[in-house]
Write a structure and sequence with these properties.
Blueprint: E1 3-9, H1 14-25, E2 32-38, H2 46-52, E3 58-62, H3 68-78, E4 83-85, E5 92-93, H4 97-108, E6 112-118, E7 134-136, E8 151-153, H5 176-187, E9 192-201, H6 212-232, H7 235-252, H8 257-283
Parallel strand pairs: 1-2, 1-4, 2-3, 6-9
Antiparallel strand pairs: 4-8, 5-9, 6-8, 7-9
Helix pairs in contact: 6-8, 7-8
Length: 284
């Protein structure tokens, strides 16, 4: 088995349908499996799974827990492939995505490769990516990785699982990918490359700063940022973000109260996240 494509999913049907169809039309010419870690009610995905299970090597595991990091770790335990991929359930792959990833792994003789996310206009999505290929280390990671684009050796997970306190579905709702990769690049000899030629489609996520979903998102994300910074002693990163959000809140208080409240919540989320990160990491 060359590749295990692990897809944690919750609350999405149309998007999952589109992802599975993109895998189907890619005509992958190697042995692979699709492991769907299904966090939905038992019959929620029945029509989607029935549509593809005859034509794609799908294994569906319906689980009782919620949490993205936990679902990824669970999927790895089921995986049989030499390599692992974790596309988001609202991603799509291109016909050459996995071909280019596997070629780069062989060419560089490395242990993991990352690509970039683009939207329907071929613009960077999720974050601003670097324009050229390079080898990642712990000091240059930013702009060269999103865990949804990784293709990596399964053996890495023998020692490096995702921190299940972090990620979507948890109080510390972000930065699990940074934490995972940083630990690998800091404490092992595994090598990682980034290439902008390895592309995944991912829709842009643009939320109004006054929208309740945006406020919930920034609270969870900044709690995750605080946890990451406390865990790895990124004091400069933490206080820079803390002070910038406070300053933005003060400035916008005179021109845009909605934005002012957003940045004030970001500030408070960082402080709350730091407080609870101290307690959580002390226990572990």
């Amino acid at each position: 088995m060359q590749l295990s494509i692990i897809i944690p999913t919750l609350g999405r049907k149309t998007e999952l349908d589109m992802l599975l169809n993109s895998i189907l039309v890619a005509n992958l010419d190697f042995d692979y499996e699709i492991i769907i870690v299904d966090q939905n009610p038992e019959s929620f995905l029945t029509d989607i799974i029935d549509k593809y299970k005859i034509i794609l090597p799908i294994f569906q595991e319906n689980v009782s827990f919620k949490g993205l990091s936990k679902a990824k770790n669970y999927g790895v335990c089921l995986a049989k492939g030499k390599y692992i991929s974790f596309p988001d359930d609202d991603c799509k792959i291109f016909k050459d995505t996995y071909e280019k990833a596997l070629d780069l792994l062989n060419e560089k003789r490395c242990d993991m490769v990352f690509g970039k996310c683009i939207d329907e206009k071929d613009e960077d999505s999720v974050l601003k990516f670097r324009k050229s290929e390079y080898q990642l280390d712990r000091s240059n990671m930013l702009g060269g990785f999103v865990e949804a684009t990784v293709v990596c050796k399964r053996e890495i997970f023998n020692d490096y699982l995702f921190d299940e306190n972090m990620g979507v579905g948890e109080f510390f709702g972000a930065e699990e990918g940074f934490d995972w990769l940083y630990r690998i690049l800091t404490t092992s000899n595994y090598t990682a490359f980034y290439s902008p030629d390895i592309k995944f489609y991912h829709p842009q996520v643009i939320l109004s700063k006054g929208d309740i979903s945006a406020l919930n998102r920034v609270f969870k994300y900044r709690c995750g940022t605080a946890y990451l910074c406390h865990k790895h002693e990124f004091d400069a990163k933490y206080y820079k973000r803390l002070y910038m959000s406070k300053i933005a809140s003060i400035i916008y208080n005179f021109t845009d109260k909605t934005k002012s409240d957003y940045y004030e919540l970001e500030y408070l989320s960082l402080k709350i996240g730091k407080l609870f990160a101290k307690r959580s990491l002390k226990r572990t």
